[in-house]
Amino acid sequence: MTDPFPPGSFVASDPLDWWRGGCEWMRCSARLQELWIERLGDAESRRAKRRARIASLLADARACSRFYARHWRGVAPDAPLEALPPVTRGALMENFDDWVTDPAIRLDDVRRFVADPSRVGEAFLGRYAVWTSSGTTGVPGIYVQDEEALAIYGALLSAQSDFAPAADPRALVGGPARLALVAATGGHFAGVVWWQRLCRMYPMLAAQARVFSILEPLDTLREALAEWNPTSIASYPTVLKQLAAEQRAGRLRIAPRTLLSGGEALCDGERRAIEETFGCPVVEDYGASECMNIAHSCRGHRLHLNEGWVVLEPVDERMRAVPPGRASFTVLLTNLANRVQPIVRYDLGDSVTINAEPCDCGDERPTLHVSGRADDVLEFDAHHGEFVRVLPLALETVLEEHGGLERFQLTQTARDELSLRIESDDERERRHAFDRAHHALAQFLAKQGAGPVRVRLDEEAPQVDRTSGKLRRIRSKRPGA
């Protein structure tokens, strides 16, 4: 398999990258030290620090973001966070140029930047990281991270001791670590941007890290991973489950020491099965494009909220707070780290339960359970007479990046049949979009080794999940699935 980002491909792309890496390492180290000092302190001092960060963020957002100045016009400057009206991705993207606090950042410029896959991991305007998200809530997002936010994300990742090597390049120098990111490539997605930023800034890390694309056929991916034999793998739960199945079947033989799971919800049964198969721990990370490090798992396999830098407010359908122990309809996110593109009471769309009881691990931070969307792995008849499995995120990436779709829903009704729903007010454009998507799907599935697959255009609009409020974009309704 061809590595989408070959070793050394970014090392000399910008002479300033090494300098940026040194500056970021110093910022990250300072934030990591601050993080550990906070955790050693008492609960009241941590709460006071958090309140100060909230007040500072709100003051900056009101003063520097034209969008928030308008959005909060009827709210007193000293009002608590809970008094501010929530925001949605759609509203923020519609007001992108007014949302950001740096007037040098313009949506048209950012769109041109993310349209070029060769610039993944490159610093936008010389100082910002930019990544995109999918349209699971209806509107694709573009997110800009400032240098301070990136340092805080790095510190939070470093504090996850089970997977610290990925965040601290010094730990890799001269060591035997071989890191693997198995992810969707071809776009400026958060995980890949983060990974490539580190490789650009730290050449020694780049020599010990590889990116593997989930768009490759499973056989090709399996062979490439076996050849690399990574000591640590970071990927989505659906990918880790599939790799575990390949390992149990004897088609994959690797011996990782750590697995990092993120991007989707991972249930306890799936985690135990993956850990038993590979004989190593799974470290779970809960994050989003809007905030990379919301929570991470402890050794007791419970997600702890990074409450020093993240505010999560579980709410019901009417945006009223729900008590601990009850699942929310959605959750409002406030990211205390990013000042250039403030995220304040943002409707994230996940159903979250804040646990009422403390964790046995001794960490006093709140624990939570997330019920996000769960897309399906699809199975197709293969040319060789068996079947091939295709990961949902691979299909989403093909339809977004090559089919040009934003809001859609792909449903499998048989091993050789798919139904595609596309949201569009213009019937002619919807037909053209279907033709593009059909062509992209046909090429991709043929590359995966699937036999002929019929794809039909469903006249209905995509339907959100009634429980989570999110759009399940890849579903299987195949009999017997």
Features:
nine-stranded mixed β-sheet, GMP Synthetase, Chain A, domain 3, four-stranded mixed β-sheet, alpha/beta, 481 residues, Rossmann fold
What report would you give on this structure?
35% of the residues lie in helices and 21% in strands. By secondary structure, it is an alpha/beta fold. The chain folds into two domains: 16-371, ANL, N-terminal domain (Rossmann fold, 3-Layer(aba) Sandwich); 378-476, GMP Synthetase, Chain A, domain 3. The strands form five sheets. The protein has a nine-stranded mixed beta sheet with strand order 4-3-5-6-7-8-9-14-13, with helices on both faces. A four-stranded mixed beta sheet has the order 19-18-17-20. Strand 8 and strand 9 form a beta hairpin. Helix 1 packs across helix 7 (147-158), helix 11 packs across helix 12 (268-278) and helix 13 packs across helix 14 (427-448). The longest helix is centred in the N-terminal third of the chain and has 25 residues, at 16-40. The chain is globular and about 65 Å long. The chain starts with 15 loop residues before the first helix and ends in a 5-residue tail after the last strand. Mean pLDDT is 86; it is low at 6-12 and 162-175.
